[in-house]
Amino acid sequence: MRIKSMVKRIADKYDTNDPLQIASQKQILIFYENFKNIWGYFNSSRRTMMIHVNANLNEALQRFVIAHELGHRILHPNVNVPFLRSNTLHSIERIEREANQFAVELLIEDDLLLDGLTIYEAATVSGVPVELAYLKKIPR
Known about the structure:
It is built from 7 helices and 3 strands; from the N terminus they run ααβββααααα.
């Protein structure tokens, strides 16, 4: 299933595109912690799902991180990215790009583009890093 259609299905199911509300409805706990070199990560322990977010990021970036980590949970439920990064030679670029695309599709609503905003303006309004705006699939 394409990421855009998956995001639409999830937003329709939970009646929101707010990653905090979706995480809450999926019973995923969110923890804000002081990290030095990472924005966040997802983990689970004893069937409890958790997203850990860097408390030092601004609110918009924290929201993006939550959307990105939701993307990992939904798209790659059995992949441990930190483990792959530190213990294997597997490329994690595709996995990270897909989680970024999930976050971009979730946070940038199609209506913003249909109303005439550029993809970069829509990214700024939606709290998405502009360097990732290119991942948004333009609505037809």
